[in-house]
Amino acid sequence: MDEDADMPPRPLRDWRHQALPALGIVALMLFLALVRPPGDAYGWRTLFEIGHVPLFGVAGLLMLRIVRARRGSAVATPPDFLIALLATAILSLAAEAFQVFQPGRDANVGDAGKNLLGAVCFLAIAAAVHPGLWQRLGKDGPTAARMVLVAAALTLALALAPVLGVAWHYAQRAAAFPLLADFTASWQRPFLSLGRSELESVRAPDGWDEMAGREVSRLTFLDAPWPGVTVREPWPDWSAYATLRFQVWSELEQPVEIVLRVDDTHRERDHADRFNGSFIVVPGLNDFSIPLHTVADGPRARRLDLADISQFILFSRRPGEPFALYFGPVWLEGEPNRIADAPGSD
């Protein structure tokens, strides 16, 4: 009599080996569906974008555990890896399709590609460290396994490389302080957002002695509501300085108005809950200097938090026709702790 005749099929006997990895996959999918970046910071956005790679890499390994349990494989086999990869690919497509029904989200082909890349790399690394999978290749098996391992590791490193770019941009931002913005610098680009405007780097106009021979930014304000440039995530703590400065050169024949807006992280969307300063730009050089206690007094019902600035914007209200101005760097200056003694400070 067959001793296994009265025993349940192998997959059912292995349900414990399937439950934990299945719960892990459910947890990963819930994280993907429910968790959002804490704010719109450049670093968090990048981490969440490339996070698809390790997330679906781990999902692929968990799927491999489930496949092995279902197929009763004591040792992983090539079909196990192939089935796990296909199942993870289907899971990825389903996850992206589900986002169509979530407010503020949609399916993204790029994210689906990152999902698949993560699954392929993690499963390839797992396969490379299983010597039994390469025995059929004889003496070439170990070499093939090492090549797969190196290729998968390098691909994974390239996919995760944007993390190093994020670190570099934030390090350059810190090193530049008290310079807050230089529209011509490469480190500045991830922190800039153009709205109905055009920005290009050009040689400083003749006559601008302080910037002679250097590059400045030519900002073209288009004929549209509120054209300008937003500097997101400047160095946040301005509290040890006294003055915000920037220079503008105009080749226009008539004066024009521009507006500087400064927000802190506690800002409401109300126009009255931020600093809004209007400046008249005349032909030639304009050297603007704004006391930071004036910036702090910008909101009507409170003081702007100079230790936690989130962004500032240079824009035009509603120009009747396009016009261009030349901008140099934006920086802070003044003796430390002068703000504490400024008129109107708490």
Outline the structure in words.
- The protein is an alpha+beta fold.
- The chain has two domains: 10-160, no CATH class; 172-341, Galactose-binding lectin (Jelly Rolls).
- 39% of the residues lie in helices and 22% in strands.
- The protein has nine helices and eleven strands.
- It has helices at 10-13, 15-34, 42-50, 52-71, 78-98, 109-128, 141-160, 162-176, 292-296, and strands spanning 179-181, 192-195, 197-203, 215-221, 228-232, 243-250, 256-264, 275-281, 284-291, 309-315, 323-333.
- The CATH class of the largest domain, by name, is Mainly Beta
What number is the mean pLDDT? 90
How many helices does DSSP assign? 9
- How would you classify the quaternary structure? single chain
Structural class by SSE content: alpha+beta
- What can be said about the biggest beta sheet? 6 strands, antiparallel
CATH-scheme architecture of the largest domain: Sandwich
CATH topological fold name of the largest domain? Jelly Rolls
Q: Report low-confidence residues grouped into runs of 5 or more.
A: 1-5, 336-346
What are its keywords?
single chain; Jelly Rolls; disordered C terminus; disordered N terminus; alpha+beta; 6-stranded antiparallel beta sheet; 346 residues; 11 strands; 2 domains; 9 helices
Show the helix and strand layout:
Layout: H1 10-13, H2 15-34, H3 42-50, H4 52-71, H5 78-98, H6 109-128, H7 141-160, H8 162-176, E1 179-181, E2 192-195, E3 197-203, E4 215-221, E5 228-232, E6 243-250, E7 256-264, E8 275-281, E9 284-291, H9 292-296, E10 309-315, E11 323-333
Antiparallel strand pairs: 1-11, 2-5, 3-4, 4-11, 5-10, 6-9, 6-11, 7-8, 7-10
Helix pairs in contact: 2-4, 3-8, 4-5, 4-6, 5-6, 6-7
